[in-house]
Write a structure and sequence with these properties.
The structure holds 2 protein chains of 2 kinds. Chain A is mainly alpha-helical. Chain A folds into 2 domains: 71 residues, no CATH class; 212 residues, MetI-like fold. Helix content of chain A is 75%, strand content 2%. Chain A has 15 helices and 2 strands. A two-stranded parallel sheet of chain A has the order 1-2. By secondary structure, chain B is an alpha+beta fold. Chain B folds into 2 domains: 240 residues, P-loop containing nucleotide triphosphate hydrolases (Rossmann fold), CATH 3.40.50.300; 89 residues, Nucleic acid-binding proteins (OB fold (Dihydrolipoamide Acetyltransferase, E2P)). Chain B is 25% helix and 29% strand. Chain B contains 9 helices and 18 strands. Chain B starts with a strand and ends with a strand. Classes of the chains: A mainly alpha, B alpha+beta. The interface between A and B is medium-sized, with 18 and 25 residues.
């Protein structure tokens, strides 16, 4: 097919694509929008029917208007514990992501460049650690953690999340590094650099999109983790998913406003990080296709 | 003592039974400042041999000795970055995320060297000037032409002033005109730097014009290692004889040679270079011109003689067309007696 007919076909399907994508975006963003709006509502407006989704200074009866308030956020920020738990979430996710990406890159490089007898089995074994449902191992792990003094510590969760994400980051990074020809690091080694220098200066910069994509997935998985955080923490190392769930359980009725405010705060960092990495993410997800 | 002695290198990649290993018992030497060309067909093991020398490929057997005081050192176990060799890869392998300047300075920025920034700057400028890249330093490799990429790759190799240069078919992806120019460039560079060089190619013309010594490699074995004229005049066997010279050499079996009345020396093959024939036009002659090609400086013909096909070259002034008949003669001193 000539490039011209290819382009005109793409031109014809473009509006359809845009409509479909817009519809999809609206469907997936609607709950998020509703969550954010709820964070700015008074208790009376949160469960009102018909739903009120227009922020205003006052809320007339039977209208779509609700009274805009910041009191939910005041409540969240006044709660020292919630702030600590938000910090826990950020700290634990970032640390475990850094660790699992660094170790996973090295492991992926090793698997990619040094094939050895049983290497494929080893790789499958690495992946199989991910197949266990977290709750199945939660009991033995919490037993081990209590003996090791790791219960309710940030370090304990960082270690656990790193281990769980490592299988994934190793596989991802192996796939990305497989795509990079060995010729570059061979050239670098002949240029007088050690293998590690070659890896850091030549291979990893080329794998940057892959690293970004891996980091995003790893961060999201650590950020959202609930089961282990629930079983292994009690006061000091609690993370936001556990805290948000606890807000529901605090009283008989669900305090939708504070819940939504906490959830909105929980959303912000990951959205910000996702936007930051957006460019790399698209390249990373289609790494093989855009090469060369 | 030569600068490098390569002794009994063997490499196998788990070939199937019956297939020859990638390299078997390859031995040769590289003198200080010598330009050795490794000539062979695709799959002969040329690149593998180069990778063994560079330390990128572990040989199954054999060793590499580097001349040093007081006695030669076995460098076979050294990693590539300790060997003080530089390589130009067939596909250049420039670092895509670095500018030309960064590519050229990369070997100098190795931690082990510990060069000051000013020194790096000066050496990059010198290499860029030598290769005509001074105004291209800030470009990225993707903005360069094939010839420019090639020069950057050579510059990156020579900027560190290595003891030994390894070039793996560096001109294979260039067009004919550029190739001719670059062969001269490389020759000039090697002479002015005075370093040892191993140059891999499948092109016999490149080999003939560059080499101090040609190493003919075939199916992982060294068939012959000698200066170009020596290899051309005294090929070790028919295989080597066929690799050099176009049109290719005529190889006659002893029966065919006997039928033509040529003297025999008890060898299995008699080789006659196309230019060794003395051709005389003769309407009653036994040979008939089947194909006539004007190659400019000479005339190439394919002649038929008693069912044999003979390749012959003659002076371009000879007036001839297909179907003309000739008498052929050859000086006995020009006959090459060869084993298979």
């Amino acid at each position: 097919m000539s490039p011209r007919t290819g382009r005109s076909e793409a031109g014809r399907t473009a509006p359809l694509k845009a409509i479909l994508l817009a519809a999809y975006a609206m469907i997936s963003l609607a709950p998020v929008l509703y969550l954010v709006l709820t964070a700015f509502k008074l208790p009376a407006d949160t469960a009102a029917l018909p739903p009120r989704f227009l922020p205003g200074a006052s809320a007339p009866e039977d209208s779509f208007w609700f009274r805009f308030t910041l009191q939910n956020f005041h409540r969240v920020f006044a709660d020292a514990q919630t702030l600590l738990y938000l910090f826990n979430s950020v700290f634990i996710s970032v640390c475990s992501t850094l660790l699992s990406v660094v170790v996973g890159s090295l492991a992926g490089y090793g698997f990619s460049r040094f094939p050895f007898r049983g290497g494929r089995d080893a790789l499958f074994f690495v992946l199989s650690t991910r197949m266990l449902p977290p709750l199945a191992v939660a009991v033995p792990i919490s037993f081990m953690y209590s003996r090791l003094g790791l219960l309710d510590t940030r370090f304990g969760l960082i270690l656990l999340y790193t281990c769980f994400n490592l299988s994934f980051t190793t596989w991802m990074m192996k796939a990305f590094i497989d795509e990079i020809p060995t010729a570059y690091e061979e050239a670098a080694m002949l240029d007088g650099h050690t293998r590690l220098e070659a890896l850091l200066r030549v291979v990893l910069p080329q794998a940057a999109p892959g690293i970004a994509a891996t980091a995003v997935f790893s961060l999201i998985s650590a950020w959202n983790e609930y089961a282990f955080a629930l079983t292994l923490t009690s006061t000091d190392a609690v993370t936001m998913p556990v805290r948000i769930h606890a807000i529901i359980g605090d009283s008989g009725t669900v305090p939708w406003g504070p819940l939504a405010a906490a959830a909105t705060l929980f959303l912000l960092p990951i959205v910000f990080f996702g936007l930051m990495m957006r460019k790399h993410l698209v390249r990373g997800a289609t790494f093989g296709a855009v090469k060369g | 003592m030569p600068a490098y002695s390569i002794e009994g290198i063997s490499v196998s990649f788990g070939e199937r039974p019956g297939e020859p290993p990638a390299l078997s018992d390859v031995s040769f030497q590289v003198g200080a400042g010598e330009l050795v060309v490794i000539l062979g067909r695709t799959g002969a093991g040329k690149t593998t041999l180069l990778r063994v020398l560079a330390g990128l490929q572990k040989p199954r057997a054999g060793r590499i000795l580097e001349d040093a005081a007081p006695s030669p050192v076995d460098i076979s176990a050294q990693p590539p970055y300790r060997r003080d060799m530089a390589m130009v890869f067939q596909n250049f392998s420039l670092y895509p995320r670095m500018s030309v300047r960064e590519n050229l300075s990369f070997p100098l920025r190795a931690k082990a060297l510990g060069l000051p920034a000013a020194e790096i700057e000066a050496r990059v400028a010198q290499a860029a000037g030598m290769l005509g890249l001074a105004d291209k330093l800030e470009r990225s490799p993707s903005q360069l032409s094939g010839g420019e990429l090639q020069r950057v790759a050579i510059g990156r190799a020579l900027v560190r002033k290595p003891k030994l240069f390894l070039l793996d078919e560096p001109l294979a992806s260039l067009d004919a005109k550029l190739r001719e120019h670059m062969v001269l460039e490389i020759h000039r560079l090697q002479r002015s730097l005075g370093c040892g060089m191993i140059y891999v190619t499948h092109d016999h013309l490149e080999a003939m014009s560059l080499a101090d010594r040609i190493l003919v490699l075939d199916k992982g074995r060294v068939l012959q290692a000698a200066p170009p004229e020596e290899i051309y005049r005294h090929p070790a066997n028919g295989r080597v004889a066929r690799m050099l010279g176009r049109p290719a050499i005529n190889l006659l079996t002893s029966e065919e040679a006997g039928a033509m009345g040529l003297p025999l020396a008890g060898k299995r093959l008699v080789g006659i270079r196309p230019e060794s024939w003395r051709v005389t036009a003769d309407p009653a002659g036994p040979a008939t011109a089947a194909v006539v090609e004007h190659l400019g400086p000479r005339l190439a013909m394919v002649l038929e003689l008693q069912g044999m096909i003979l390749r012959v070259t003659a002076a371009p002034t000879l007036r001839v067309k297909a179907g003309d008949r000739f008498r052929l003669a050859v000086d006995p001193g020009d006959l090459l007696y060869l084993d298979k």
